Fold this sequence. Notes:
Blueprint: H1 3-18, E1 35-38, E2 41-45, H2 58-71, H3 79-83, H4 86-99, E3 103-107, H5 110-121, E4 127-131, H6 136-145, E5 148-152, H7 157-165, E6 172-177, H8 189-198, E7 202-206, H9 221-225, E8 232-237, E9 247-251, H10 253-262, H11 264-267, H12 274-289, H13 291-307, E10 314-315, E11 322-328, H14 330-342, E12 345-346, E13 349-350, E14 360-365, H15 372-390
Parallel strand pairs: 2-12, 4-5, 4-6, 6-7, 7-8
Antiparallel strand pairs: 1-2, 3-9, 8-9, 10-11, 11-14, 13-14
Amino acid sequence: MSDKLFAGLAAQLQERDAAGLTRRRRLLETAQGVHIKCDGQTVLSFCSNDYLGLANDPELINAWQQSANIAGVGSGASHLITGHHHYHELLEKALADFIGLPAALLFSTGYMANLGIMTALLGRGDAVFADRLNHASLNDAAVLSRAELYRYPHNDLSALEAMLKTSNAPRKLVVADAVFSMDGDLTPVPALLALCEKYDALLLLDDAHGFGVLGKEGRGTLSHFNLTSPRIIYMATLGKAAGVFGAFVAADQIVIDYLLQNARTYIYTTASPPAISATLIKALEIIKRDESRRVHLQGLISLLKSGLQLKRWKLEESVTAIQPLIVGSNEEALALSEYLLTKNILVPAIRPPTVPKDTARLRISLSAAHSEHDVAQLIQSLNDAESEMAA
């Protein structure tokens, strides 16, 4: 490798650092939770997607240990060889029933699920219609599918309809986050579905941040809107509200059968350890039976909204556990995050290209594991920060 190539890489890294965009990993030294030790510092964390506080739940730990004693710690093969375990099968059936769609298919990650769906179902000549604020995995999947990609302004149904109306593609797929990961707002699913029915399109919903939190018994965004349709392809992750790891796709049986035969990110990878699936079956039981976690979470969201008295920074409208505080510049967002860290509070600064230019923010993630005292501490620190940093 030439010195010139290395010099080019170094220059690009320096440019990123000068723009305040360098990413750095924090080192977690404890189990996931709201009070953690990170980079040697004990902090109150508002960083995790563990919305129901299940990641370190004793029932799940016990389920993992017991199932590992039975099934071991590795699957040993892909699903289509000998890696598809009884626990995987039970979980797929439980997830389909939970969401209210005919069938489900497990994937190792949400990224792999979205890639698998779109590259299997679409090709050259087909069309993808995607919200501009979609997750990176959906954007990458659309590009890799080789279909024509049309991006409509965030939640702009008129723009989407204009695109659909002029499309002659044999297969059309509308794609959206159900809950947008950096803004916390919901996509208008009923209206999207109506457009898909009108223009003969399928609808792919990425419910990574709604599953387990929204809807009756935490059944997700489809339950929240009381919707079901054979046009819907539903994807959700299992490492956020479910507290463990993985992802799944739920859809009409023919869609799941087609993905099993054609989704390369499913076919050509080792199956996840069966103990993970056994643990997730227990997580589903807790999600369904323990409404108090969601009630408490909603109370914390209301407390945060009512307690912040900010003029310089703006808390976006969100009814979900994702509460974005828009700061503006990269430097100020980083400075605010560092200020909170001096108060032993950890909230990540999110910067472009993850979010649009000049909308750098703190992404406050609330969990049912937080107490009212935890949120009150965050509120006080943010209110103090606005006055102290202005001075």
